[in-house]
Amino acid sequence: MEENWAPEEGAGQGLAQRLHQEGLAGPLRWLENCLRRAAGDREEDGVSHPVPLVPLTEENEDAMEDQRFRTLLRQLGLRPPSSEQESFWRIPAALTPQQLRRAAASIAHRGPDPSEAPPKCPQ
Known about the structure:
Layout lengths: L12 H9 L3 H21 L5 E2 L5 H8 L1 H9 L14 E2 L5 H11 L16
Antiparallel strand pairs: 1-2
Helix pairs in contact: 2-5
GO molecular function: DNA binding
Organism: Formicarius rufipectus
Protein name: TIM protein
């Protein structure tokens, strides 16, 4: 994949929704926050550096091992560790703040999440 490749609008949306339903809502929120933070930093600093995605929880670590989660990362334009020295996936420097925000928006959860439904009132 080329360094200047950019994800399409809404990339990863369908896969993200499936992963939400399969219990990966936490790691998806973490990824969304990482993308938004990187976008904000790039706007503030005016500089782009590759940003490693460092999973600090076991749940996020497990997600990073999940083949479908990795497919989603690729669809969003993120890149896998490129050498023995790198152990983390990275947000490439080439992605603009706008592209990062679009990627974050495309994986943000839409629709009802059964685990977050308000408790039903007895009739």
